[in-house]
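Q: Got a minute? One more chain.
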Amino acid sequence: MLVVVAVLVAVVLAGASSGTGHNGARVADTSARAAARRHRNTRSPTGSRSSSTSGGSGSTSSGSSTSTASTQVTGPPGQEPVPILMYHVIAAPPAGAPFPGLYVEPAEFAEQMHALKRAGWHAVTLDQVEAYWRRGVPLGAGKPVVLSFDNGYNSQYTQALPVLRALGWVGDENLQLSGLPPSQGGLGQGQLRGLLAAGWELDTQGISHAALITLDAEQLHYQVASARQILMQRYHVPVNWFCYPSGQYDASVEAAVKAAGFIGSTTVVPGWAHPGEDPYRLHRLRVLGGTSGQQLLELLAASREDEPAGASYTA
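A: Always. Here it is, folded:
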């Protein structure tokens, strides 16, 4: 088993040295998929809001690692929805950036966080939300919000972390393991450990931010299950939530996420996350560059009852 893990880690590190950025990530090469195979062998369509029948336990043949909070039992399950905000780069967009809206300048980010605090919000993790919804574990006084950060940009460490730490808040890092090396503005392992030491939650977008709906079963297993196992073994923390790259998912992708032992997934479908909906289709609210603190509060107020996510998202 240790040899297999070493192979997988070596593959990911090799991928990081030659990977592409957020929107140019590649599917793993043949040798990487072979390593994964050896490891295994040993807006949007709408639906109806109803009680979920798949609120995963985090325990499958792929292994499990659930948070301490999720094992506490304190009362009846919580019923309130919780918004999940989506951030990418906390920096000014460089000239010619293909997706400048994904860049939130540091001053804007700080203004947004302070506006949230003044309005009574406080940051929580997805593990804490799951414990509240399933076991009634309190989320604290005020209004809870999850702050998710995609892809693993180092500005999340250098710019977002200081602001959140000053407020006593934490974030949720959705890390892609390759395709965003430090030379291209990605988080280094030391920085990631710094986020974890500050109380951040670690989740993942898979190995290389691949278009999961285009992959076969073997490739899906590599991108989803192998990513979870590598991160848990490398950082010794729970990795309970998957974030669909570019928000794309279908029945096959959702099944692969469940089989890997994740207890839920986040999408790019706008709205708040509701306890009665499928936990593998949780809404998020994208925060774009140029959004003021007041505009962010208005976005939150206007999107609480958006339609639930559909059975697939392929945009």
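A: Strands lie at 84-87, 121-124, 143-151, 172-176, 201-206, 241-243, 264-266, 285-286.
Q: Perfect, thanks.
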